[in-house]
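Can anyone check this?
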Amino acid sequence: MKTNIFYTKKEIKEIKLALISDIHYYTPNYNTKILISIIKQIKQENPNYICIIGDILDESKYTELEELKNFFNELAYIAPVFVTLGNHDEKTYKNGKCEYLNNPVLKNMLKKGNKIHFLRDNAITINNITFYGFNPSHTYYKNKEDFLSFVEEAKKLKGNLSKENYNIVLCHSPINIYKFIKENQEHFLSKADIILSGHMHNGCLPKCISDFINKKLKSSRTLISPQKTLFPKYAQGRIYNELTDGYTTRGIIKLSKVTKILHHLDRLYKKQVEFITITNEKNK
């Protein structure tokens, strides 16, 4: 399987990352063949690290998570797993309206998992590689991902990143983080070497079309965003022309169960894990 290669001047050992986002797990009757396929793909590629970038759950109301726990344990047996949450992991729907609902079962599962690192404004460093997770709050998503809401939350972060390490930032939504870094270069997030995101569901485009747009036209735009805006930036694949490298996964699920009848069309999309390689420029 071909991988995107990102180069750095920092002295690091070459690593391969498996990227997963938007699993949108629910009970009962989630298609567990999807989880089996993810495990199979990752075993074939044998990455150094696995990054899960939010929307593990379809709604935060789901608490019967034994199958999901087994899935995470299998991943951790392959390589260390780094996890950050998304908007669906902390919200649910009641009478057709969205409301915030904390899910301690999911969080405890992630905190107690062996070789599973739950990142919420904290960093884990292994061999000069630092993984940092930023989870914007449900209020940010409720405010339709307004830029000023992002700025307010980002400026309250207490984390830090070292310039000496290669810094990988996991942030479920890519919509505002690149603009924030450009306008706040004194902030520690500006030390990110690469930003990994999900959330955008590839604009629901077929992979053959989105690959052409990303690789040939060198654009990360797709058709539609989760906010129903057209031709959003940072929506899929490699991110171009920003101060830091970036990659937005196309997501395992494109049409979640909360889309109701449209969810049945999700079977038309291939369930694909994405892989990237990070290496020193000397290896070019």
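Reply from J.R.: I decoded it. The chain has one domain: 4-283.
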